[in-house]
Predict the 3D structure of the following.
Amino acid sequence: MPQNSKYVIGVDLGGTKIYSTVVDMAGNIQASARKKTKAELGFDVVVGRIAKCIKEAADRGGIDLDTDIATIGIGSPGPLDLDKGMIIETPNLKWKDAPLKARLEEILHKKVVIDNDCNAGILGEFAYGAGHGAQHMVGLFIGTGIGGGVIIDGKLLHGYNQNAGELGHVILDPNGPECGCGVNGHLEAFASRLAIEREIRVAELHGVQTAVLQNGEKTVRIRSKKIAEAFFAGDAAVIAAVEKSALYVGYAVANFLNIFNPQVVVIGGGVVEAIGEPYVKIVRNTATKNVFDIARRNVQIVKAELGDNSAALGAAVLAWNAVANEKLL
Amino acid sequence: MPQNSKYVIGVDLGGTKIYSTVVDMAGNIQASARKKTKAELGFDVVVGRIAKCIKEAADRGGIDLDTDIATIGIGSPGPLDLDKGMIIETPNLKWKDAPLKARLEEILHKKVVIDNDCNAGILGEFAYGAGHGAQHMVGLFIGTGIGGGVIIDGKLLHGYNQNAGELGHVILDPNGPECGCGVNGHLEAFASRLAIEREIRVAELHGVQTAVLQNGEKTVRIRSKKIAEAFFAGDAAVIAAVEKSALYVGYAVANFLNIFNPQVVVIGGGVVEAIGEPYVKIVRNTATKNVFDIARRNVQIVKAELGDNSAALGAAVLAWNAVANEKLL
């Protein structure tokens, strides 16, 4: 195994696409490749597609996978068994007990390390993005769902079964709306893109005119970009829905400040990317109003910086950490 | 400094009393002493009282403080500056920037280490009580207020400003009752002994007969013991108030399971000591109903074991850890 490789490969395995990147130690992406996941074709086919996507990224960067790359990191939907490198189950991909690490190592003859996609995203922001330089960080990604992760003393929080950090699934009101996971009043049920969409539809049912539902789109999903356009155009229903989302994220962040006392809170994901600072400002104001002085002191609540690259870059960090650990042995 | 001492001294510094214990490495209390805190006499006087209480415990155990004790640990109300060993401020004791560690070291010529009283209690349960053997633990003490603490990979979670773990101050409903800290809907405002008392008084105002308010006690506090007696005697108002408290603690524990994915959750404090298993059972049922399968898997939700000794024993663990760190240097 090459001990002084200049590059690793970080892979973001999503429900709809695979994104692989060749990354140097400073977090610069040298080359990348994308493929559709096609999860419906089953685990074996998708593993083959991941391997191809990895090879394509290396080829594009003019990098020899065999000699120039020590390790490959993957951010995968979970829950995962990190030691075995297995996907325990994932609603997105419909697999159970899938040996992701072992199968990819067989195909590529390379060491593979995995962590869940949210943790990878948090790790990316921690190492190369908005959390750079901090040792205590909380991260939240507000998209179709809400994922999160926590860095404590420079290390990812994993917990006993290695599935800590489910920060979207905290009850903020036991009588609140039902979450996709079945529990009432989770942050995700108040603040995800789907929750924003629900609020807009409810407002429209109550007679509020809204640009995003003009064409009778009862079933089509309302994308973050469209939400942002209507938000900045002054659409009342959309503004109310977005502000409610940010308010509840703010309550949750207040809780995470009292729980973790972090140095930085990084807020990212599709909704935040699209709306930007107006969203983060509501989160910041709500959080700092509802927290102890000592937990508010010095804390930065900021927008994520890496956009769609966060999970792939964080997967690269996983790989670099594995290289470092190997050198220590 | 004695390098192979058989004992340390652990001190629980409370708003009303000081409790000091001589403890061996296995957590056996060899001797102890108690004094009233008399916080109103000021910091200097109280430091003198702590020193006296420490000497009394040593004397009672027939132990020479100078030669047989390496280190003294103190669980103190916070927030604290752990590095400087200072109390930053504490509403209970009305001190600000009080140099607890430095002043006690001057008087006793012994190394003193401090942490906040809740963390000390959690550490006691972790090392010698209900969390023994676990590496990932969440602890909650339900008393007049609600305090908590977290052990991750065998170590206390401290955070950036060393004041993480404020688990009583998490919003469980932004429209809920106001907490003592001024924020609406904190766990403490739903579930502390004071919250139980408020619920009982509200029920009585609505015409519900209750044994604990029979003598027109409008202002006297209702102690946990009295609450427990009425609970077991079938007093409807008290049962409803206690069950509501346990329900909200259950919601909070569900959140902590998804956040921390611990191996064990320890529930203690005056209310839980008084009611016991019926209380813990509601917490357990509520928590495990509202959490991901993976975070529920293998987790134990149990009653604390050390009662009033938890903070003093945890302070002893602080001291033992300091001894161990010194040997490593």
Observations:
- DSSP finds twelve helices and 13 strands in chain B.
- Chain B has a mean pLDDT of 94.
- Chain B touches chain A through 46 residues (CB under 8 Å).
- Chain B has two domains: 7-122+309-328, 133-304.
